[in-house]
Write a structure and sequence with these properties.
Largest sheet: 4 strands, mixed
Strand order of the largest sheet: 1-2-4-3
Structural class: alpha+beta
Helix content: 25-40%
Number of helices: 5
Strand content: 25-35%
Oligomer: single chain
Distance between the termini: 42 Å
Radius of gyration: 19 Å
Length: 215
């Protein structure tokens, strides 16, 4: 009988969602990708250490390319859904210039300013959606999800890479996470809340976030 296992592998300080399908019909470990997830086919006897070793062999940069999630080009980067060209090794965003050399350094330099931006969007929708207690907003470099809501700590964590998507796409994630303040699961009632505040939510999700389209 076939069965599926789900893992989070940390590769180069970034998390990747891995879904492993095991079957007696599989003779070797094979990895492929779809919709931002790495899928692995493996025989029953394959050790998880060997599966992780295969995925790690790609490296985080190549995995981003495989997943179509590489907003960085040689001459610029996608920011808020628009391609911004580098100028003499610098990128302008938030009315400031940041060194455009290494993505890790870039994310580190812009994180404070993006946190300010997305916090302002959370505050905006908290008021509109009637959220009584403001959330603590955080950003991280996450590979598996764009946002997560922790009711226990009253905090929402967003992926730093949302900075590459359009402002509407970012708002769709903000609304999604704040809707969990009303409905914890992803039932029809949950999506009724989401669609109340963003009627084109599914169009934005399908055309941008699920397709990993930065424009």
């Amino acid at each position: 009988m076939d069965f599926v296992e789900k893992y989070i592998f940390k590769i180069d300080d970034a998390d990747f969602e891995i879904e492993v399908k095991r079957s007696k019909d599989f003779r070797r470990i094979v990895a492929h990708s779809r919709s931002g997830i790495i899928y692995v086919s493996a025989p029953y006897t394959a050790k998880i250490e060997d599966i992780k070793k295969l995925v790690e062999s790609y490296g985080s940069k190549n995995l981003d390319i495989i997943l179509n999630r590489n907003p960085f080009k040689n001459d610029g980067v996608y920011l808020f859904g628009e391609f911004v060209k580098a100028n003499e090794g610098f990128i302008k965003i938030f009315n400031r210039f940041f060194i455009f050399k290494d993505r890790r350094i870039f994310y580190k330099n812009v994180s404070k300013y993006f946190l300010d931006y997305i916090t302002s969007r959370v505050r905006y929708y908290e008021e509109i959606m009637g959220v009584n207690e403001p959330y603590n907003v955080k950003i991280k470099n996450v590979k598996t999800i764009y946002g997560s809501n922790s009711m226990m700590t009253k905090s929402i964590t967003f992926d730093i890479k949302l900075i590459h998507y359009s402002k509407n796409a970012i708002d769709s994630v903000v609304i999604h996470e704040l809707a969990h303040d009303k409905v914890r699961d992803h039932s029809n009632n949950f999506y009724k809340v989401v669609l109340t505040y963003m009627p084109d939510y599914f169009e934005i999700q399908n055309n941008e976030l699920k397709r990993i389209d930065f424009k």
